[in-house]
Amino acid sequence: MAEIELAVGEVERVGRAAVGRFGLSAIEEATVWEQLWDAELRGKTTHGLVRVPWLLGKLRQCHKEVPQPAEETGWISRYDAKGAVGYFLAEVAADRARDRALAEGLHLAVCRDAFPTGVLGYYLERLTGRGLCGLAFCTTPALVKAAPEGERLFGTDPVAFAVPGGPEGPVIADLTGAPTSFGQVLAACYDAPLPAEGLLTAEGKVPTGPEEMFARDPGGPRFTGTILQDMGSPAGRRGFALLTALELAMSLLAGPPGGAGHFAILALAPERLGLDAAAVQARADELTARLAPGRLPGRHGAERRRRVLESGRMRLPGKLWRELSEMAG
């Protein structure tokens, strides 16, 4: 089904109503919606409204309590979320890291067992708005194999880094070492191109369509395929090394056993630590002048969001709009 053009206000109304089906508290619901909506407006559609039908089953299983830091050790706060909503807890952790870094120069918030968390760069922007630099990474459900006959080893674990960028906005790099992301496959269910490489069905075959990568459960689509890391290419080996490093770093910070749903957010106040914040700004300005507009990470999405909101119109896949409308009732 082709894309259709819709009024931004109508999409927001229907999308909010669909998210209201998740059974979350009012504050959790608002937090989840704001991130999904921000991703959609910025053109990061793999983390936007295509996730709503999939999230329906996931978030209904989360418990509704906001855990307090289980442990405070110097400049580290550790949360044991015990299945709390990742979107919400990541925001709580980011705000704590921000506030403590403003007071002390540096703070790390680590959380176990909270999934999903969505776009890590979204939380880092809460830091850059106060002049802080940030680093975040998380572990996600194991989907990545190193060989077709092997077992799933890692998730498509993302990592993000952000620095303030002056009047043109922060510079935020948000990436994964995997050849593709779960969100790209999910978006393909709504007529986005299916990634050409790096995917296998549950039977170990190359898929001809996204429907072969999912099972339809009562709570929503469930991913049954795998993502294959190309260990025969330099880029594939570098990506695998990055995923390995993130998994080991998270084991160090969150403790055993490893697995999905752990994340860490580091906030750093350059001036309080005697670092040269002006040098970061100068380098960002230099790169901005030498690159085409919007090429620095994070800048393109902010500009797209502004344009969409000003125009009052946006496009969605017709299939997705139908599903959201049915969920909204």
Automatic annotation (TrEMBL):
UniProt keyword annotation of Cell wall biogenesis/degradation present? no
Keyword field:
Oxidoreductase
Q: Name one Pfam family in it.
A: Ldh_2
Q: Has keyword Oxidoreductase?
A: yes
GO MF entries: oxidoreductase activity
Q: Which family does it belong to?
A: Belongs to the LDH2/MDH2 oxidoreductase family.
Its protein name is Malate/lactate/ureidoglycolate dehydrogenase, LDH2 family
Q: Which organism is it from?
A: Tistlia consotensis USBA 355
Q: What is the lineage of its organism?
A: Bacteria, Pseudomonadati, Pseudomonadota, Alphaproteobacteria, Rhodospirillales
